[in-house]
Design a protein that fits this description.
Among the domains are: 52-213, Ribonuclease Inhibitor (Leucine-rich repeat, LRR (right-handed beta-alpha superhelix), Alpha-Beta Horseshoe); 219-337, Alpha-Beta Horseshoe (Leucine-rich repeat, LRR (right-handed beta-alpha superhelix)). The two termini are 49 Å apart. The strands form six sheets. The chain has a 21-stranded mixed beta sheet, with helices on one face. A four-stranded parallel beta sheet has the order 8-10-12-14, with no helix packed on it. A four-stranded parallel beta sheet has the order 16-18-20-22, with no helix packed on it. The protein is 6% helix and 21% strand. By secondary structure, it is mainly beta. Keywords: Cell membrane, Leucine-rich repeat, Membrane, Repeat, Signal, Transmembrane, Transmembrane helix.
Length: 594
């Protein structure tokens, strides 16, 4: 979010390039669109075969500069200086389909080129873009562009912003990009780039934001990063970078955001990490770091998010005083080689929003937090916590997500008093007993989206479901639940994942299950269900996984995708299921697939 705001600010400022003072504008006639520029724009439009945004439908008439051509701005001489489309990334119905025309390289006065969030623009980045020598902003993010990044982009010496993120680009990062000495922001994230970070990028002394995340880059993090004195944002996460952290990186006193998570980095965190006095967010998760977490980390006065999870850090934790890391709001130390025993007081006594200490060998009762009202997310899973839960949620009025799975907690569901605003509860693999009606009833909050109480000792029946629930995931598998699946399950209209496997459920599969249009995961296996698999399930269009294994079902499997192409194992060990992918039903000839 921070980097997007920064980009938009830059683009807003750059859109003012070429605007003349008011007095000059009053005495100068509006520029009439250059015929050459108009032809280049229409050639671009011709390569877009479908435009659901409606932007290009405004490109009519002779004059592309009079303001009616959406996304186009000109200078007083009638030459196009800006071409900018920004599509809504999350709205899949808004897109352009086609390719980028090389004709855009024939707009010699273009300073800003933004074609972003159009989703279905494919093909390569035209080599002709290297002729746009006045360009200061090039943003082609969140499309479907393919091929290599043209090395000719290194000729755009005035470029200040380069973002090609969120495409399908492959190959190396071109060393020629090191020629862009005016570059303040480079974002090549969310592609399929490979190879090392080129040494030539050391020339980008004005760089403030550097994002190469979510690629397949290898090699080491270059030492020259420490020369970028103005840099505030570095994200190299989700690559295959290896070796130790360069010491020079810890000289970046302006650095605010650093994410190196999901790589193959090794060694220790040097004590010099305490020099990053502007740092607000540090994520080194999912690497191969070892050793102790350095005490100097307590000097990071502005740090609010610390994620060191899934490494090999060992005891002891640094002794952080009450004044250490005063801005801290979120901490994740999960899945290291830590044997904490109890949650340190410098964590429990602090006003935090997110606490993640999964797999830290915590023992005894659930911890008490001095400021429970500030907590929005807690993950204490995969520990050895015991006892009851009855008072744990007291005063946790802001809690949204809680994960206490894989512990030794022993309590009745009737003791579970969760805050009204909670959206996700994960208690799987404990010793929880009682009835589901304690947490699923007419008082269940509409905010609740995820319930996982699988692999416990829960008994009773599945309760009736009232309207207004917004559950997206319900996992009650591996318990001792009996009775039938109620037809009111159709009231869970938002449900995406349902797992009732490994219980004692009887009766038939309700026809109403087919009304759950959003369902994509269904597991009814290892129960005592009888009757047929209802054909109403064919109405669920996005089902990716279904298992009916080991019940007492009989009759023809619904003959339509995806049920007739699921593996036979999804239907095995029933009484008499037949039809694809099982053997043909008796007396009925099975069609062979074409």
């Amino acid at each position: 979010m921070q980097i997007l705001v920064w980009v938009f600010d830059v683009l807003f400022i750059s859109s003012l390039v070429g605007v003349f003072p008011l007095s000059l504008a009053e005495t100068t006639s509006p520029g009439v669109c250059s015929e050459a520029d108009r032809a280049a724009l229409l050639a671009f439009k011709a390569k877009i075969v479908k435009d659901t945004t409606g932007i290009l439908s405004s490109w009519i008439g002779r004059d592309c500069c009079e303001g009616d051509w959406e996304g186009v701005q000109c200078n007083p001489a009638g030459r196009v200086t800006t071409l900018a489309f920004q599509g809504p990334v999350k709205d899949s119905s808004m897109y352009m389909k086609g390719t980028l025309s090389s004709s855009l390289g024939s707009l010699p006065f273009l300073q800003v080129l933004v074609i972003s969030g159009m989703k279905l623009i494919t093909g390569p980045i035209p080599d002709s873009f290297s002729k746009l020598t006045r360009l200061t902003q090039l943003v082609l993010e969140d499309n479907s562009l393919q091929g290599n990044i043209p090395s000719g982009l290194g000729l755009l010496s005035h470029l200040q912003t380069l973002s090609l993120a969120g495409n399908h680009l492959k190959g190396p990062v071109p060393p020629s990009l090191g020629n862009l000495r005016n570059l303040g922001m480079i974002n090549l994230g969310r592609n399929s780039l490979s190879g090392p970070i080129p040494a030539s990028l050391k020339n980008l002394h004005l760089l403030q934001s550097f994002d190469l995340s979510f690629n397949s880059l290898s090699g080491f993090i270059p030492e020259f990063l420490g020369q970028f004195r103005n840099i505030t944002f570095i994200d190299l996460s989700n690559n295959q970078l290896s070796a130790h952290l360069p010491i020079s990186m810890f000289n970046l006193v302006s650095l605010s955001y650093l994410s190196l998570s999901h790589n193959l980095l090794t060694g220790t965190i040097p004590e010099q990490v305490g020099n990053l006095k502007s740092l607000t967010s540090l994520s080194l998760s999912s690497n191969k770091f070892i050793g102790h977490i350095p005490a100097s980390i307590s000097r990071l006065q502005n740090l609010w998010s610390l994620n060191l999870s899934r490494n090999g850090f060992s005891d002891p934790l640094p002794d952080v005083s009450n004044r250490g890391i005063p801005s801290l709001l979120s901490i994740d130390l999960s899945f290291n080689n830590l044997s904490l025993g109890t949650v340190p007081k410098w964590i429990t006594d602090r006003q935090l929003s997110d606490v993640n200490l999964a797999g830290c060998k915590l023992r005894g009762s659930l911890p008490r937090f001095t400021r429970p009202d500030s907590l929005s997310s807690i993950d204490l899973s995969n520990n050895f916590l015991t006892g009851s839960i009855s008072t744990f949620f007291t005063k946790m009025t802001s809690l949204q997500k809680v994960k206490l799975s894989n512990n030794l907690l022993k309590f009745d569901l009737s003791e579970l008093k969760v805050p009204d605003g909670i959206s996700s509860i994960d208690l799987h693999s404990n010793q929880v007993c009682g009835s589901l009606s304690s947490i699923l009833n007419n008082r269940t909050s509409s905010f609740l989206e995820v319930i996982d109480v699988s692999n416990n000792l829960i008994s009773g029946t599945i309760p009736e479901f009232s309207e207004g629930l917004n559950l997206k995931e319900l996992n009650i598998g591996s318990n001792k639940i009996a009775g039938q699946i109620p037809s009111s399950i159709s009231n869970l209209i938002e449900l995406e994942r349902l797992d009732v496997s490994r219980n004692l459920i009887t009766g038939t599969i309700p026809m109403s299950l087919g009304r759950l249009a959003n369902l994509h995961w269904l597991d009814l296996s290892i129960n005592r269900l009888t009757g047929r698999i209802p054909t109403s399930l064919l109405g669920i269009k996005f089902m990716r996984h279904a298992s009916f294994r080991a019940n007492r079902l009989c009759g023809e499997i619904p003959q339509g995708r995806p049920y007739d192409i699921f593996p036979a194992s999804a239907y095995a060990h029933n009484l008499c299921l037949c039809g694809k992918p099982m053997p043909p039903c008796r007396g009925k000839k099975q069609e062979t697939s074409q």
